[in-house]
Q: What sequence folds into this?
């Protein structure tokens, strides 16, 4: 009986190791980790407001009863938003990986699972994945004062500072 239990544990451990390859920092593999999988990866974002690859799962659409939009965004390593601002502010909940957040004129912050950022209204900022790891966030965006105002792309120099 003990040999069967040991064999089962060995098979389980081998399976877990085989499923976590050295490239597991990309967005696809990050979502395979059970602790980070809160929502599906979603649809690839195809607009020009992002640098690199990112995916969105819409969770709540703003309406007359609730003025907040909520979405889960997965950023591939190196991917990020353009500079932008929200007339009613935004809250970012880091749920997996390692990311960055920066407000115009302030130093870049590193974000990890469990971190929370309160983006003030009408303050230009950007957020996205670190250079070598994917990042997953939930964004809660107030819509009562209008849509997001998208600005220019974050340059590589700004991103790497």
A:
């Amino acid at each position: 009986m003990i040999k069967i239990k040991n064999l089962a544990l060995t098979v389980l451990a081998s399976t877990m190791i085989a499923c976590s390859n050295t490239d597991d920092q990309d967005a696809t593999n990050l979502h395979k980790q059970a602790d980070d999988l809160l929502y599906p990866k979603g649809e690839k974002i195809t607009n020009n407001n992002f640098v690199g690859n990112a995916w969105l799962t819409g969770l709540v659409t703003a309406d007359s009863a609730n003025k907040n939009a909520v979405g889960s965004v997965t950023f591939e390593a190196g991917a990020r938003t353009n500079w932008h601002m929200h007339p009613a502010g935004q809250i970012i909940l880091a749920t997996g990986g390692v990311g960055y957040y920066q407000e115009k004129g302030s130093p870049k912050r590193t974000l990890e699972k469990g971190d929370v950022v309160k983006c003030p209204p009408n303050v230009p900022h950007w957020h996205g994945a670190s250079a070598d790891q994917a990042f997953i966030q939930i964004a809660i965006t107030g819509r009562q004062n209008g849509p997001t105002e998208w600005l220019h792309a974050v340059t590589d120099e700004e991103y790497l500072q």
Remarks:
- Helices lie at 2-19, 27-30, 156-160.
- The chain has three helices and twelve strands.
- The chain has a mean pLDDT of 84.
